[in-house]
Design brief:
- The chain contains 13 helices and 15 strands.
- With 458 residues, it is an alpha/beta fold.
- The strands form 4 sheets. A 5-stranded mixed barrel has the order 1-2-3-5-4. A 5-stranded parallel beta sheet has the order 7-6-8-9-10, sandwiched between helices. It has a 3-stranded antiparallel beta sheet with strand order 11-12-13, with no helix packed on it.
- Residues 452-458 have low confidence and may be disordered.
Length: 458
C-alpha cells in the first residue's frame, strides 16, 4: 500500500492560501454587506465583519487603505467593499482584506466608475504622451457647459478679468440627466469641426456622483480623447474627480481655476512688455552713447583731421617700398646670373667626352694591373703546386713499394695485415706489390719473440 504524505497544519493552511491567492475572481472582488463587530485599532487598522441576511465573513482594512476613505465606517452601516480573499495561516480562517469601501447608497455607481476607469486606463486614454500643450496666448476660448449655471458665469468673469482681448465661444449643453452625455459629445465634435477655438473648457459646477455622472460616461471620455483642440476639464469642486479629468489634457479643480489656466493675466503681460520696453530703451541708449563716443574718437583721428598729410605719408612709404622692391629684384637677377655662370663652368668641367676618355684611360691601366697581378698569382700557385707534388710523391706508398716493400690485405681488402695475430692458417690474403697484386694462402705462421729475434713455428 502506497504511503500517503502527511501535511502539517501550517503546510495545509499555506497550501489553501496559495490556492486562494492564485484565484482570479478572489484576487479582486466586490462585495456588499453590513458592518458589525467594528474595531478601529490604535495601529490604524480596521477589524470588522461583513454580513448579509444569510452569511458573514471576517474582514480587515489596513491603515494605508482606510486613510483614503471619504467617510467614517460605523457599526451597522451598509457598504460595498473591494479587496481580495485569502487565508490567515495562523488561525486557518479565510477572511476578506478590503482596500476600498463606499457606502452602499452610491456603491453601484462607484463600482461602474472604477471599472470604466480601469478599462480606459488600460486602453491608454490617460497616457501622458497623449496630452496636448495649451497655447500660451490663445485668441479664442471655447466653453462647453450649461448656459444657466454658476460655472459659466465664473468662467466668463474670470476670462474677461484676466485676458479681456480673448474671444469666447459658448456652446450650451446639458450637464446633467439622460441626454447630457450625447450633448457634451456633440459640442466637442462641433467645436473641433469649426476649428476656431484654441482651447476648450468642458465642465460644470459641483454636485453628487449622480449629478456629475455625464462626465463619467465612456462616450464623453472618447470624445475628449479624440479632440484635436486641447481640453481643460473643470467638473465639480476640488475634491471631485471624474473620468473626464483623467482623459483631458489638463484638469482644473474648479471652473474658475480652468479659466485661470486657459489664459494669462493681461496686466502681467502688459507689465512684462513695459519692463522689456524699458530694458530695450536702456540698451538702445547705451549703444547710441557708445557709437557717439566712437564717432567722436574717429573725428579726432589724425587721418580725418589731416587726410592729405596721411596720404603723403603713405605715398612716401610707397616710394620706399618701390625702391626696396627694385633693389631686391636687381640683387636677385645678379645672384641668378652668377649662379648660372657657376653651373655652366661646372658643366664644362664635367664634359661627357672628357669623362669617357678619362674613364677609358683608367680602365686600360686597371686592365694591365689586373693581368700582371693574375700572372704573379699564377706563377706563385704553380711553384706551390710543384713543391706539394714532390712532397706527396715522397710520401706515396707506391714510392715505398718501388723499393721492394709490399702491402698485405685480408681477402676482402678491407683490413691491412700488420701482425701475425691478424691471420690464421689457411686464410687467403692479397699482397700488393709495385707492379700488381698476388693472391696467397697462409701455410705457416712464425712469430718472432720480442727482444730475441727468434721465431716460433706453428
Amino acid at each position: 500500500m502506497e504511503q500517503q504524505k502527511v501535511l502539517s497544519i501550517k503546510d495545509l493552511n499555506r497550501y489553501i492560501r496559495m490556492k486562494l491567492d492564485s484565484d482570479v475572481v478572489l484576487s479582486d472582488v466586490w462585495i456588499r454587506g453590513e458592518i458589525s463587530n467594528f474595531t478601529h485599532h490604535s495601529s490604524g487598522h480596521m477589524y470588522f465583519t461583513l454580513k448579509d441576511e444569510s452569511s458573514r465573513i471576517r474582514a480587515i482594512m489596513f491603515g494605508s487603505h482606510n486613510q483614503k476613505l471619504p467617510f467614517i465606517p460605523k457599526e451597522g452601516a451598509m457598504v460595498i467593499a473591494r479587496g481580495n480573499v485569502t487565508v490567515y495561516e495562523r488561525d486557518g480562517q479565510y477572511q476578506f482584506y478590503a482596500n476600498h469601501m463606499q457606502p452602499d447608497g452610491i456603491g453601484s455607481l462607484y463600482l461602474a466608475y472604477e471599472q470604466l476607469k480601469k478599462k480606459l486606463e488600460e486602453e491608454g486614454l490617460f497616457a501622458y504622451e497623449h496630452k496636448q500643450t495649451l497655447p500660451a496666448y490663445p485668441k479664442t476660448i471655447g466653453v462647453i457647459t450649461s448656459p444657466t449655471g454658476a460655472a459659466v458665469r465664473d468662467i466668463m468673469i474670470t476670462l474677461q478679468r484676466r485676458y479681456p482681448q480673448v474671444n469666447i465661444m459658448l456652446y450650451p449643453v446639458l450637464v446633467q440627466g439622460k441626454g447630457a452625455a450625447p450633448s457634451i459629445v456633440k459640442a466637442i465634435t462641433a467645436m473641433n469641426k469649426l476649428a476656431e477655438a484654441d482651447v476648450l473648457i468642458v465642465g460644470r459646477g459641483g454636485g453628487s456622483l449622480e449629478e456629475l455622472w455625464a462626465f463619467n460616461e465612456e462616450v464623453v471620455a472618447k470624445a475628449i480623447y479624440r479632440s484635436k483642440i486641447p481640453i481643460i476639464s473643470a467638473v465639480g469642486h476640488e475634491t471631485d474627480f471624474t473620468i473626464a479629468d483623467f482623459v483631458s489634457d489638463l484638469r482644473a479643480a474648479t471652473p474658475t481655476a480652468a479659466a485661470e489656466l486657459a489664459v494669462p493675466v493681461a496686466t502681467e503681460i502688459k507689465s512684462q512688455i513695459q519692463q522689456r520696453e524699458r530694458q530695450l530703451r536702456q540698451a538702445l541708449r547705451q549703444r547710441v552713447q557708445r557709437y557717439r563716443q566712437r564717432l567722436s574718437s574717429l573725428q579726432r583721428s589724425p587721418v580725418l583731421v589731416h587726410p592729405k598729410r596721411s596720404v603723403l605719408q603713405y605715398t612716401e612709404r610707397l616710394d620706399r617700398l618701390h625702391q626696396q622692391f627694385t633693389r631686391s629684384i636687381q640683387s636677385r637677377v645678379k645672384f641668378n646670373r652668377e649662379q648660372q655662370s657657376r653651373v655652366y663652368h661646372s658643366l664644362l668641367r664635367f664634359n661627357p667626352k672628357e669623362q669617357i676618355a678619362a674613364a677609358k684611360k683608367n680602365g686600360d691601366a686597371s686592365h694591365r694591373q689586373l693581368q700582371l697581378a693574375m700572372q704573379s698569382i699564377l706563377k706563385s700557385n704553380q711553384s706551390q703546386l710543384g713543391s706539394s707534388m714532390r712532397q706527396l710523391d715522397a710520401l706515396s706508398p707506391l714510392k715505398v713499394m718501388s723499393r721492394g716493400y709490399s702491402l698485405v690485405y685480408d681477402e676482402q681488402e678491407q683490413h691491412l695485415i700488420k701482425s701475425v695475430k691478424d691471420v690464421q692458417l689457411g686464410d687467403v690474403m692479397k699482397i700488393k706489390v709495385n707492379d700488381g697484386q698476388l693472391d696467397c694462402q697462409v701455410w705457416a705462421i712464425k712469430e718472432e719473440e720480442q727482444g730475441h729475434g727468434e721465431g716460433k713455428g706453428n
